[in-house]
Each structure stands twice: as C-alpha cells, then as structure tokens.
Amino acid sequence: MKSGPLALEPLAEIEPISRESVEQRAAQALRELIVSGRLQEGTPLVQRELAQRLGISQTPIRLALTELARAGLVEVGENGRALVRRLTREDLEELYAARLGLEGLAARLGAVAVGPDELARMRTVLERLDELAVEQDVDAYLVGRWEFHSIAYLASGRTRLVAEVERLFWRGGRYHRLVLSSPERFKRSVRSYHDFYAACKKHDPDRAERVIHDSMRWAVDLGGRALPSERERP
Questions:
Q1: Which residue, of 19, 65, 105, 113, has the greatest Cβ tally within 10 A?
Q2: Predicted confidence band of residue 218 (pLDDT cuts 50, 70, 90)
Q3: Coil, strand or helix at 9
Q4: Cα(180)–Cα(203) distance, rounded to whole angstroms?
Q5: How far apart are alpha carbons 104 and 127 in whole angstroms?
Q6: Among 52-61, 182-191, 192-201, which is the least confidently predicted range?
Q7: pLDDT tens sequence across 148-166
Q8: Which of 77, 80, 83 has the alpha carbon at shortest distance from 5?
Q9: Nearest-CA neighbor of 74 among 26, 97, 42, 36?
C-alpha cells in the first residue's frame, strides 16, 4: 500500500476545553481517518503537521498517538517516529482470536437474555442491513452490524464485556473492509446475521456462539490469504 507524506483533508479545529478532552478528540479524529482508510497503512504521522491541521499543540497529539499505539492502529519505530500500522496476517489472527472468545461469550449471554423488544429492534436493523449489503455501503453497513449485535449483547447487562467487544470490533475496521470487497461477500456476511437473529429468537446460546465463531473464521480465512506476513516485511 501507499506510504508517504501525511495527506489529510482540512479538519475543524478542536476547542481547547481541557487537555483530556482535546487528547480524546484528537485520538478519535485520527482513529476515524485510519479505520476508514483515508490514512493508509505506512503513512508517517508527524506530530507537528497533525497539530497544525487540528489547530492544537503537539502535547495532546503525542498522547493521542500513544493511545492509538495501544489500540494497535499506530506503530512507533525504534527512531521514535509514528506511522499507521500495517495490515498483517498475524495482526488479523491475533485480533480475531481475542474477539472469538469475548464476542462468543457476549453472543451466548445475549441470546438467552433478549426479549420481544430487543428482537423487534434487531429485526428492524436486519432489514436495513439487507439493503446496505445490496448497496455495498461499507461504512453504513459496519455501523449497522455493530448496532444489530449490540442490541443482543447489551440485553445481558454485561456492559463491561460489551464495551471491550465493541473496542475490538472497531479496532478491526480496516480488516472488515478488506473482507467486504465483493457482492458475494456481502451476501455471505448478512446471511450470518440472519442466522444469529434466528438463534436469538430461539434463545439458543450454543447456536448463537457458533454463528459468531463461524463468521469470524470465515473472515480470517479470507483476510489471511490477502495479507502479507510480518516475516515478509522488509
């Protein structure tokens, strides 16, 4: 993929409410640019340039980059320079291994806990996902995917678990886009949500977990074939 000088569209300046809020908003702005692919893998992240574009000092930028490095979206080299983390087979496998356990648990708990109101809301979102899959609107589709699953997961009352599952889901945003690259893949993806809805409707935790696991393994198999290994990097 392309790497080179930082190329960002103009961004609204961040209001200096507090150091913490400025840092959080800077991190969110950069996270969205990375996950959406507008900042491609390998792109250098120069603190001075980012600070100028966001209209803030370099201190919250440095803290935001540290947060994004912990989240796995930014890597810092031995020379201290930050860049958008490259997509690799190992990163994909490790990310989905973490999701496999936590989201499988959330699926089991949610399938048992959902009631008529949650099922009705899930059905509404599922109908929208069917339309978005035909349109291949990746951004809206990913938002709908999380909304759909989170309705079931949150029914369990396990908010800490759901927050961690959500973090990992959005952390994998670039990999989601890699998988959703054709009409056939959208069809396969949305079919798994129909299966998950059916499992929730029957309050079947085993089936709900199996649907999640099968879907993730499918994504890893597809993504893994398209990605380089870290051992192949120069």
A1: 65
A2: very high
A3: coil
A4: 29
A5: 23
A6: 52-61
A7: 999 999 999 999 999 999 9
A8: 83
A9: 42
Tokens, residue 44: 């250098």
Range with the poorest average pLDDT among 101-105, 110-114, 181-185: 181-185
Rounded mean pLDDT of 171-190? 92
Q: What is the 3-state secondary structure (H, E, C) of 33-65?
A: HHHCCCCCCCCEECHHHHHHHHCCCHHHHHHHH
Location of structure tokens 């409410």: 17
Q: Name all domains of the chain by residue range, CATH numbers in brackets.
A: 19-84 (1.10.10.10), 89-226 (1.20.120.530)
Residues 6+ apart with CB under 8 A from 224: 89, 92, 93
- pLDDT of 20 > 60? The answer is no
Q: How crowded is the C-beta side of 189, counted as CA atoms within 13 Å?
A: 28
Contact 130, 213 (CB under 8 A): no
Helices and strands counted in the chain (H then E):
10, 3
Whole-model pTM? 0.79
Given a cut of 90, whether residue 226 has pLDDT beyond it is no
- Rounded CA Rg of the chain: 19
